[in-house]
Request: fold
Amino acid sequence: MKTFVLSTESGVQKPANYKIEYQKQLNDAQYKAVMAGNGAHLIIAGAGTGKTRTLMYRVARLIEDGLHPNRILLLTFTRRAAREMLDRAGSLLDDRCKRVRGGTFHHYCAHILREYASEINLNPNFTILDSSDTQEVLQHVRLPFKEKNKGQRFPEKSTLYGLFSAMTNRELTLLEALSELYPQFIHFHEDLVQLHKSFLAYKELNNLVDFDDLLQLTKELLESNEAVRTKVAAQNEAVLVDEYQDVNKLQVSLIRLFSSVHKNVVAVGDDAQSIYRFRGADHTGILQFPEMFTTKSIIKLEQNYRSTQPILDVANALLSQASLKYEKNLFTEKKTGELPGLVKTSTEQEQSQFLAQYILHLREQGVALQDVAILFRNSRDSFDVEIELNRRGVPYVKYGGQKISEAAHVKDILAHIKVVVNSSDVISWNRILMLIDGIGPKSAAELMIWMQGNSNAAPSKAYIDKIDELTKLISSIKKKQNQVQHCMQQLLEYYAPICKKKYDDYPKRIKDLEALVSMANQFEDFEKLVQDLTLDPIDGTALDTEATQKEENPLVLSTIHSAKGLEWHTVFIIQCLDGVIPSGYSVDKPENLEEELRLLYVACTRAAEQLFITYPIVLESGFGDYFSNPSRFIAGMSEKMLEPWNLVRETPQVDEGNQQLLN
DNA sequence: ACTGCCGACATTTTT
DNA sequence: TGTCGGCAGT
Reply:
């Protein structure tokens, strides 16, 4: 006789022992967030409370519970964030974590669209336009409207871009977006409706998709096509969203669609760190999460592991000036530390001198350059410091501001590759034709008509040889698509003389391009290369890694926006002036003003041990020098919270205490 | 038609 | 800071 023992346990297998000791390694709130079961959960994570840590432990926990990694979708703000999180989760558990699908909304949408393009009459081979490409399209489309309204000030391409983008991302009608953002153009409403139509038509005709379309088309696809929606959403057994405070309305709609089958959504964010209103993020969005998703729990992470209490005091003092927020009480066990310093300098140059000298002083004290950051509101606010740092040979990297891949020479090269990938990419064709001597807008347009076979007029003899050379190059690359690096090299040989002619500073640019060529081999094919470089542009550093690797790890200069999620031992916030932060453009609207406040809050909470806020009293401008005021956000702060520093020029006598010497 | 030059200018922040 | 529009010269 055979025996079979029936288990008394229910069918679900509960691993009695996890590989990871969750309870030991996490605090109570984090543990709760990691272990929370199915359904929607919102995690309000104050700055420095271990938000990333919590997310990655949750990923590991889900996998340990038997969920297949590719049924997890992790949506982050940048691709780097996803990569880091999954790498860290991987070292926590094992390599299964790396198979989690992670990336930005734009990446995921691009992926869906490529797969299901045919369902919405889209060619899967579409080219993704970055913001400057999109503006070029707008420039083209707006011409007839500008002509029609001759003599009047018609919206610029950047204005149109802002308008249409707001409309899509915030799910507004054109009229709503127009009256809110650019009421001065309200009388063009009718024209703008037409312009928008021709903008969409142009993109459709030429197989072009811009950043906003990636999201919008995906939404339309999933809303209208139940079969696809079910298929896509069924795959997402767990959806994790990072930086929820910065998602916009359109992205919220997408999350709902992505999670529409299993309805397991965990969102992490901090309403106090919402700084992307300009991109359509609505910082009240996170406050409305419970209305959008059937929320099982709201978990608050309040213990800060990053900063000292004096730094948190300043941060909390800033936050107390905000009006609408989730009540939070950040606390730390790092009770003691230096008081944050307030450094007033006479000029911007003096500010730069102070920074350079103090940073070198810190280095002598054992604080490595890479553990120090200089943060600022606008990319150009660091120009003066950069000069000073260069003068003293202090290595630094700068994040934020213009991306290398948006520089003209890089775009030139990429345009050649783009026509290989998508031969109907007229924007790129136009760009590369115009590079040829003697070809301007007119000839380029004629040539494109001719190439499409819609004209018998052959191109003029003056440049027929050059056209020939170009077409040979393109078709040769087309044949060797798998030899990415080799083709890039070939392309660079073709482009180098053009570059020399076009730019005075060509040696620098050629160097950039050589670096681009050498990094090209990490891509299997051109499609991947083009898509990755548009969706995930290289910021300042990546191209000159060679230079930075040789020297010591560099000091970090960054816009506050790009500093999101990062931390340093010592942080300097510079140019902390009224009109800079808050920006002069935001002072007339309370909502915008609050965002500036949050921005300063984000900056302060990047500091672990020491924080400095600096500003010059005299500002130079084209019209001469004038006196400036410190940011209104710090103006009323007590000296016991933010300690004023006194800068003294070097004299034979040595000063003591909190006085820093300048020489 | 295209190129180059000049002066005016406006400017956040990013996928 | 570079970028944009306008204008004159080739």
Remarks:
- Residues 156, 379-380, 383, 402 of chain A lie near DNA strand C (CB under 10 Å from a C1').
